[in-house]
Each structure stands twice: as structure tokens, then as C-alpha cells.
Queue: 4 jobs
Job 1
Amino acid sequence: MSSDLAAVILAHNEAENIVACIESVRWTGHVVVVVDTRSSDATADLAAQAGAEVLPHRFENYAQQRNAALTLVETEWVFFVDADERSTPAQAEEIRATLARPAHNGYWIPRHNYIFGKLTRHTGWYPDYQMRLLRRRHARYDPQRQVHELVLLDGEPGHLTEPLIHYNYRSLRQFREKQQRYVAFDARILHEQGIKPRPHKFITQPLRHFYWRFVTLQGYRDGWHGLRLSLLMAWYELQKYVHLRRLARQE
């Protein structure tokens, strides 16, 4: 297994997370690879001290960064893990068993998301499948999807059951900062697709998004936590159209 599978961590200013993340994927048996986006904190030094191979790479977008990572390693299989995620012994057993007789070139992996310190089982954050286990020569990322990356895989993917643990959004400030970045990316995509910010969309889209999160995705089962998340995501759906209108006016 050591020559067949490498864990790859994309990192930027993740000093508080990087060592624990590396420790959680040592079971892969290969040197853990950290693709560092010129961090200004101690991420690279801490990763090297923890025994990882640190490969600096300039960031352009998320899809390009993962495609670059696929070319920087030489193993048959790559297991992508973000710095704020942790693998588990149960997941290690499942992946080892899967790669002993692989039936697919890529596998979806669920995530357990901890948001503001609370495990979020509904509201759209579970199962939250991510395609992270890839046969390197049979997978690449769509360059047109610069955020919320899309894997272009040879053949149909499989599904695993053991989740990654994702310590997502530790604070409201972090939530706001990340959502503002997503808003800008998503609005730009809509703008490039020729979608116009019609006046009624500023009302209907946030309402639909709230209903989707809180009712369809059963956010109500997460209680007050689910209500707050549904309201926050509806607010950022509104902000996406505000940003789209700004782009249209600039044009």
C-alpha cells in the first residue's frame, strides 16, 4: 500500500491544523504531501517537522491547485484531505479494503461537519459527499469550476461509508469570510453564464434557499442551530445576487 497511495493536503495558513491533519493520515504508509500556497504563518515549517513533504505551489484557483497536486505525486492513488479535516482508523480500514480490489477509479467520501463546534447532521451538511479518493491517471478537475471543484473521472465513481471529520466554520467570523469568497466566485460564474439579476430574484431566491435548507434538507431537525444556518445561507444567497447586479452594472 505504501507505494500505491499518497495522502495530499492542500494548505494555506493552517498552522493550527496541519500537524493534527498529517497525523490522521499517516496510515496511508506513504510520505504525506502538503501542497502549500505560500503560507505566511508556520504551516510549511510545522508540516516539515511533522515529516511531511512540503511542495510550494502558487494558488490560481481550487481546481488548478488540485490538478497540480495530481502531477506532483507519483503514486497510483491519491487521497485528498483538507487541513481542517481528519481521517479516522475506521476510514483507514475501509480504504485499505477498497484499494485491495478497486472497482472504480474514484470514490465519494461523506463528511461529518462540525459547524460552530456542533456536529451538523442536516441543513445540507450531511452526507456532504466529496470525491477525494482518486486513481491519479484517471481523474482531473474541471478547470471551468474554479470553486466547488468538479472531478472529471474515467468511468463511474463508487461510494464509501466512513466519513472524514471536518472542523468547518469554527466561528461566525470565519463563516462570514468564507461565504463572502464563495459569493464572489458564484456570482462571477452566473455572470459568465449570462444570467441576469432580475428584481424578483432578490426575494424569491433567498426564500427558496431558506426553504430548501430548513425544510427540504430538514434543517429543523438541527433545532436552533439549523434555523440559524438556514437564515445565514439565505442571506448569502441574497448577497450573491447583489454581487451579480454589481458585475452587470460594471459591464
Job 2
Amino acid sequence: MENFELVTLRGGSRSIRSRMHGETMHIGTDPRTEALELHIGQQQLVERVLEWKGGKKPFVIWDIGLGPAGNAITAIESLKGSKTPIEIHSFEISTEVLEFALQNAEALEYLRGWESVIRGLLDGGIAYPLPNIRWQLHRGDFSRNQLIEPPPSAIFFDPYSPAKNLEMWNMETFRSIWMVVSDPLAPPCLMTNYTRSTAVRVTMAFAGWFVGRGIPTGDKSETTIASNRLELLACPLGHSWLSRVHSSTNASPIRGRNNERGPITPEDFAALRALPQFQGL
């Protein structure tokens, strides 16, 4: 039995369900719409690329959790009018889902016309979908691999959920990314993802990130956005969120690979309150 299957979403568009993880990708909407809302639009990616002042240095995008490539393809399509040099680094532990998507490109719609680019990426690890865009595939477990340079200006964080893929959402993983973007010479960076989990947000904050409320998309009334610059966040988490953390039954930061759900400890809550984002509240 294959590990993946096609499913039909509300509205008639098709998506992919992982039988192993029991999760459907882009469950509330189609892959292109979710990518446009959650990542490209929310990060103002097109505007930021057009305003890029890095000279010959590329605008770097990290696509963490390549999956069936919906986020990366939608980003490339959105950036067609730009002449800025761009690098997209896609990270994926297994390309099985992308290979399944490629076999079903006609049904998935967003992959139509991209078959040769995807085959080139899978076969050679690098593709050039546009003259100014270099797209590189990094295979392996992102939570265990050494990260790459140069630091990103945009991160699409899209692995399977914490319930199925805890190691990608723990403090060690978020801190390893933070160490790259917190360098004084690193550019302003935004990281978007689909969760609104209190525990995940606490974990991001402890890892060093400034964390904010993200836009709604699909069935999700709220998502999460994080940055290496507090001033980049339109809706940074504040006093009311700290109150929810204090009363939540699942607010303990995710440490290690076998984290247990539970309320935040008094010691961790005091440390959270002392972080730069929350000082003065």
C-alpha cells in the first residue's frame, strides 16, 4: 500500500493525505491559496524581494518541509517579475511525497507545467526555474543536520504537526535556526507556519525568536509568525497571551524528542516573562 493518497477538499481541489502520519496537507484550502496567504502574502515576500538591497547577494528563502512543493512553486510563480537574485533552499527528510505528487500532477493542478523542473530537482538536487532563481534540495533530517549559509530572509516552516513530528518543533530545532538569523550581519527575517499552539509559541520564544499572531487561513482562525526583529511583527504576542500561557494545560516548552504535554512551570513562566519581547508588560 502506498504511503500517500489523493483526497478531495471542500471546493473540489485535490490534495495529498499521508497514510503514515494520518494528516492531510493544506486541509482547509488548496496548496496554492494556503501558500499565498500564509507565507507569500503575510511575509510581503514580493515587496521585500523588490526592495532587496543586498547587491549581488541573493535573497534567501528556506523552505523547511518541502513536501509536495506547493510553497516553493507558488513563491517562484509570485516572484516572476523580479530580477533580484534569489536562492530557495528546500529541506526534506524524504522526497517520497513529492514523487507521488509528480505522478499525480494533472490532478493536483498547481504542479501542471512544473514536471520537468521537479524532475530536475529530484535527479540533480538543483534547478533553475527562472534565470535569477536557484532552487536547491537538501535531503535528510533537518533537526539533525548542520544548517547552511547564507542566512535566510524568509522561512516557510511547514513540517508535519507537532503531534506527528515533535523533533521538528522542539527548542533545539528552533534555536539552531535562530543561531543563523541572530548573527548581527544577518538580514531581517520572517518565519511563518500554520500552528497556533501555545506550547510551540513558548518554545519559539525560549529559542530566541520574537513571536506574533499570524493571519487566518483555511480552517485556521490564527497562525504564527516569528522574526529576528520585533518591529517586523504586526501583532506581537503580549500581556493577554501571557495570561493564556499561565492558565494553559499545554504550555510547557518542547525540549528534546520525547516531550510530555503539561502546564508551564513557575520557573519557566518567570523566564518567559523576562524575555526582551515581554519586558515592560
Job 3
Amino acid sequence: MCGLLGYLLSDNSSGKMASSEVLSNMLSTITHRGPDGSGGWCDELVGLAHARLAIVDLSDAGHQPMPSACDRYMIAFNGEIYNHRKLRRKLEQQGQAPEWRGHSDTETLLACFAVWGVEKTLKATVGMFAIALWDKRKKVLTLARDRFGGKPLYWGWNNGA
């Protein structure tokens, strides 16, 4: 089972910046969840990390956190999208598919978010999942999980500490 984690600093975090060292320390606590690789990414406000158990795309093209082809989004994803091939075909038929780097359902999700937006993509998605999606342009973090809660997603708030 994969694992994902991250943190978001508020705009008023008094000069604090996301730290790859903090993210790395956090990631070390969940590496047992993903024997097929792990990675982290951060910018000035957010840090995302992922421990990977490869299921759909066993190649390095499925490495996470993963950026969207348009570079607007960054995702850490745990789960499986059962209809991801159908979603890919729909994007291709609409002439809106990116040049695919691999065969992962994570890449499919990112392409759908870029074309259809978050809400429409989540409504079209069938599977079990937990997602942390960072919109670099709007500076919005979206956390989502499947309708039945097949994959856990926990979050907390720390008042500026």
C-alpha cells in the first residue's frame, strides 16, 4: 500500500518556507508503505511526499509526487483508478490528451484535472483513492478520497506552530 503525506503553510506563516528536510524526515516514517520508491517535492508553501507500491505502471514514469504535463499541478496519490484507461481514451477522443509519459493512473488523473477541473474529474473517477493535489497557479491544496473511504486520508491543523 502506498503512502502519502505533506504539509501546507499558511500565507501568514511569518516568513517560513516549506522545507525539504522536514519533508524528508516525515517521509522516513512511512517508507515501509512503499518498497518501490519514494520521493518528495516542495515549493514555498507546500510539501508533498509519497512512498510507492507500484501496481498499474511499474516503470519510473509512475514516480510521485508527479507534476502534470502542463506543470500546473503536483499530485501525491494512493490507490487505483479502475476506469483510467477509459478516461484516457475520452481525453484522446476530445483531442486534449497530453503526450503520455507512461501508463499510470496517476498521470491520467493529472491530465483530467488539467482539462476538466477537479470536481468533474473526481465525479468521473471510479476507484479507491486518496489524493493530495497542489494547484501551483491558484495556490490551492485539494485533498480528496473515494466515496467509500477505501483509502484513508487524515489531516490536521496546527495553529502556526
Job 4
Amino acid sequence: MELEAAVCYAPRDIRIQRELAEPLGPGDVRVQVAYCGVCPWDLRVYLGLSSSVHYPLHLGHELSGVVAEAGAEVEGLSLGDRVCVDAIRRCGTCDACVRGLDNHCQNADFSRGGFATYLAAPAGNVYPLHDSTPLLHAAFTEPLACILRAHSRLALQEGATALVLGCGPLGLLHLQVLRNRGVRVLVSDPLARRREMALSLGASAAFDPASEDLAGKVAEITGGWGVEAAIVATGAVAAAEQALPLLAFDGKLMLFAGIHPRASLVLDPNVLHYRETWITGSSDYTRAEFRRSLELIQEGGLRLEPLVTDVFSLARIAAALAAVESGERLKVMVRCSGDLDLV
């Protein structure tokens, strides 16, 4: 059979091309892709800002769909089942995998792209959905899993105060997960409409870092103590620089977003020493976090619909990437198979 897939050949050169579908192994599943979300990493590749990739490559990894074909040894999945897919193939045997750090799998395979009409995956990477879970919501499983990875490293207690810097779709997911765990959340973003969205989703306060005294506002709200954690959910190093002085004693700085363009973060080691400051990051997600992410989505405690500002057809993938590049949108989704009943 043939499929259509979006292939990036060079910066700002992405094409929809017809390809032969790869043969299925006995333990593999072929999924007809319903939705695939545009990730900041997809945009960086499209713009030529990622030094770690080699063109051409298939993009897209935040996907949901319907089982179209299953290998002879596949159990628990049937034709027509609505599913979400973990697009990363991990080896399970390298040093990282055996230590439970499969988000750092040394043999990870990212080669299959979700911006396609069909995608093949091992059955263990394909997760059935409840009848009540919309396919559009299921496409949030991968980015939410990345959020959970960060929060597992922060381990904030109920009643803590956190600051989220950047109210794009990922920052707004951080906000909701924190609120659901009983954490008071402050946010910072230069765009008024994003601050308004954050307030509607439960933020206690929203600040404009370009025009407001962020340090003064945080001190006022926390009684001078500071925040227990600051999550940098934007690629600007200035946000990390703003966040460090706002941390309480034993506070944690989470570098969630990759910094682009690359930049150095200047630190006073004595501040870290005397204030016992923690600085950490998070990258991708483990299989366990992917499963927990899907559970959270299916429990229905997150408001995902307001985060989706645009849905483009696969044929308009370049327009979808341009929408994200504009900074005017929140979550942009690509509808990859127009003939599916996408519920």
C-alpha cells in the first residue's frame, strides 16, 4: 500500500510525498493517523535551527489514530480501535533503558513521522483509547508525558508555589498539572492573550515580564519567601535569568524548554551554595510517563480543547508550521486522514 507523508528536505522545504508503506512485522501495528500536533522541535527542524538532524527527515510525533492493520502476533488491538501512539522506538537493553531512563535510550529510533496518513509501530507503543476520549485530545499524550517528566523531577508538595515562565501550550499544560496537584501557580508571558488564558485555567496571577517588576510581584505574593519552583517553558535564556533570583531557599529551577539560540546561563555559585538552589532539566519522557499521561487525559481532568487554536490538513503542513512560527497561536494540530470519523 502507499501513504502520504510530510518530509522536510531542507530548511523551509517540506513536501507531501507518496511512499510505499513499510512491511509490518508480526508484532507491529499500522495506524491510520487522525491528528498529529506540531511540536516546537518540528518547527526548529523546519527552520534549520536544529544542529542534531540530517535532512531529509519525516516530522511529527504527537499522534492519535485508528488501527488499520495488525501483525499476526498482536494481541489486545483490533482493526478500527482508536489509539494513540508513542512514536519513539526504544531498544530496552542499553544502559539508559535498563536503569529506567529510557527517555535517554542510546539506540532510540525517531525515524517514523506522524505527519503522514499511516504510521507503523510496535504494538507495545500503541495504546487503546476509551470510547469517551476524543482523538484530538489523545494527540496531547506525548507533550503531556514530557510535562510529567519534569514534574517527577520537581516533586513539588501540595501547597507549594510555582512560577511558570512562558504560556504557550506546554506552559499551559504545566499550569494545569500543577493546579491539579494543589500547587499555587504564577505565570509570566509577554502576550496578554496568553496571560488571560492562563488565568482562565487557574493561574493565581499573571505577569508581563517586559513591563512589570517580576521580582517585586513574586515577593509580594509569597511574603518575600519566593517560589519553590520556577519552570522555564520558553526557549529564551532571559527567562531562566529572571527566574533564578525568585527562588525560595531550597528552590528548584526547571529548564524544561531547550534554549534557542544557544546561550550561556551565568551563575553566581555562592548564591547556589548559600540558598541551596537546585538547577535541573528534563528531556522527553519514559514509557511509564507516557502511560500515565494517557491516563490523565482519559480521566478528563485537563482542559485541552481551549489550547487548540488551529487544525490544518496534511496538505497544508507548511501553513501549520508557519502558524506556530508566528507566535500568534497556541496548539496547532494537523488532520492527517480526512476520511476518518475523527471523534
